[in-house]
Every structure is written in C-alpha cells, then in structure tokens.
Amino acid sequence: MDDHAGFRTFARALLEADGFDVVAEASDGASAMLAVERFNPHIVLLDIVLPDLDGFEVCARLTERGRRERPAVVLTSSRDATAYADRLDGCAARGFIPKDRLSGTALLSLAG
Question: Which domain covers residue 107, as residue numbers?
C-alpha cells in the first residue's frame, strides 16, 4: 500500500520474485482498508505517508482489538526510522523497513 505507482510495481515484482503472493495494491489509506477487508492478507506492507490516512492510522485500525483477522502490518517509508521513532514505539506494526532495504527476507523476518 503506497501512493507511488512506481514503488508499488517495484515492490510487487521484488516480493513475487521472493515467493510472496501479492493479492492487492492500494494508493491511499481508505483503499488499503478496503483491500484488507476484501482479500484478508496475512501481511500488509504499508507506507507511512499516504494522501488521506497515514500509515500509523491505517495500522491502528487494522490491528485494533475485536477484529477477527488481524494482519501483520509492516511499515515502510523512504525516510529512515529515526524520523518516526516516537510513533513507531507505540505502534502495533510488527516493524519498519526502509524502502531502499525492502526484500522478501526482511519482510518475512518481521511479519513471519
């Protein structure tokens, strides 16, 4: 889930090459919520900076108590984790991967 089509294309190709089944893409938080409801993925790779709801808000909604199925959410950004350190500490995400370090192995190590 990322607002940049180029990154979504890159991430899909990279993750599929590493054996992941990418079931959906979304360009904003609202679309991400709908995609998760529709496809019920095990893992959600979620950009922090989205045009409507930010990744932290989407993560909170996806992992809230009472949800029957809660995906493993991993946040990503082109910025370093230090830019979000205070918010990452209190977040329900499984972790953070900078976009330039994304790999199937990195994703699986956090969400697996």
Answer: 5-111
